[in-house]
Design a protein that fits this description.
By secondary structure, this protein is α/β, with parallel strands linked by helices. It has 14 helices and 13 strands.
């Protein structure tokens, strides 16, 4: 029998204080590791999501002690002293947990807006590590980390400053772990970075099939649904404007995120006189299957290249047809006219026309439902979690 492994897992947001699916897959992987008999400690930032109620239970052994550069969807400019203080605080925090917890392996998750020196410190200690990359943070994190950015731009100052500050100024992030990318798209994009990623592979996230199960098909009622982060890149405004051509349709928007953008969306709804047809809300994750089942179509109108996109797969697992832009990693499983309808980003008439087709062609919806169910079955959260666990077990061994 494999000996129990002690894993210190680190990232920027851990549920219930989180914004998106990346963090939910992190929590699921942690739960799987613990169920397999391993000891896992979570080290994350001091971020607190507004609206989280006290009765939302906190996982055990979660330490919200790290500081980061991100605040309210922005990276505010801070001076050199504040930057050095942040880096030293995070260094003390990491060293404390390494000494107290004595991990056999480190598990990195989302590191956008974080101190990349944490990865470098663990690498220099020779700690076995596995990183799970769910977006393009390896590309944008060096721009958000004020400390790393300075010395990547001015490498001639890195060595003397490191001697004085005792904070790493030279980074070999790529060789700091074996990296598991959520899509070939994200892996290919990240290979364009300066990081040495010889130890990398693709591991697609999957659906929690115990939660998201096929529901009976319902008569068409022109109910559109958006699920995900409130973010301008997600194309929510396109879905709202499409209602102008769909006189009988309604749209439910489920999610949280950028409050400033949410206010702008409310303004669009008011300007178009759609207040009776657009609903903004949030529901617990365990209620999402019911929301998918009640919808006639899931719209996923992203304006950017999605790293992966679990939401369409969850909708497919329930049996809800999908209309999407199919950009980025989502193109690795979305197939036009087979398991979804693909429309161009930002194209309001095209989105409205695709929804109308589903309403007017019952056979199309039935075909997309059948093929969507088959697609969702190929992506299983249990397989995903097991692969992460096995990677950490190999690293620790």
């Amino acid at each position: 029998m494999l000996a129990a492994v002690r894993v210190l897992t680190i990232g920027n947001m851990y549920p219930p204080h989180h914004l998106g699916g990346y963090e939910l897959t992190w929590r699921s992987a942690v739960a799987h590791m613990r169920e397999a008999g391993h000891t896992v400690r979570v080290l994350t930032t001091d971020y607190r999501r507004p609206g989280v109620t006290p009765d939302e239970l906190e996982d055990r052994d979660v330490h919200r002690e790290l500081r980061w550069y991100w605040r309210e969807h922005e990276i505010p400019r801070i001076g050199p002293r504040a930057c050095l203080a942040l880096e030293r605080h995070n260094a003390r925090t990491l060293v404390h947990h390494l000494r107290e917890f004595l991990p056999d392996a480190v598990n990195w998750w989302a590191m956008g807006g974080m101190s990349l020196s944490l990865i470098e410190r663990a690498r220099r200690r020779g700690l076995p590590a596995v990183g799970v990359v769910g977006d393009e943070w390896m590309l944008y994190a060096p721009l958000q980390d004020s400390w790393a950015r300075t010395f990547l731009r001015h490498p001639r100052f890195s060595l003397p400053v490191e001697w004085v500050s005792r904070v790493p100024t030279r980074f070999r992030i790529g060789s700091g772990a074996s990296w598991l990318f959520n899509s070939e798209y994200v892996r290919r994009r990240t290979l364009e970075s300066p990081w040495d990623l010889r130890r990398s592979s693709v591991l697609h996230p999957g659906v929690d099939h115990d939660l998201f199960r096929a529901a009976p098909a319902l008569p068409w009622r022109w109910r559109m649904l958006y699920v995900g982060r409130i973010d301008e890149r997600k194309g929510i405004e396109t879905a709202i404007r499409a209602l102008g051509s769909l006189s009988s349709a309604t749209l439910t928007v489920l999610g949280g995120g950028d409050d400033q953008y949410l206010r702008r969306l409310h303004g669009v709804v008011d300007d178009l006189d759609l207040t009776q047809r657009v609903t903004f809300s949030r529901v617990p994750r365990e209620k999402l299957p019911d929301e998918y089942a009640e919808a006639d179509v899931l719209v996923f109108p992203a304006n950017w290249d999605e790293p992966w996109g679990l939401v369409p797969l969850e909708a497919m697992a329930v049996g809800t047809p999908v209309v999407a832009t199919g950009r980025g990693g989502s193109a690795e499983y979305l197939e036009h006219e087979r398991n979804c309808l693909i429309v161009p980003s930002g194209d309001v008439p095209a989105l409205a026309a695709a929804v109308s087709r589903l309403g007017d062609e019952p056979g199309l919806g039935e075909r997309l439902r059948e093929q969507g169910l088959a697609t969702a079955k190929r992506y299983d959260e249990r397989h995903y979690n097991r692969a992460i666990r096995e990677a950490l077990e190999r690293a620790a061994a």
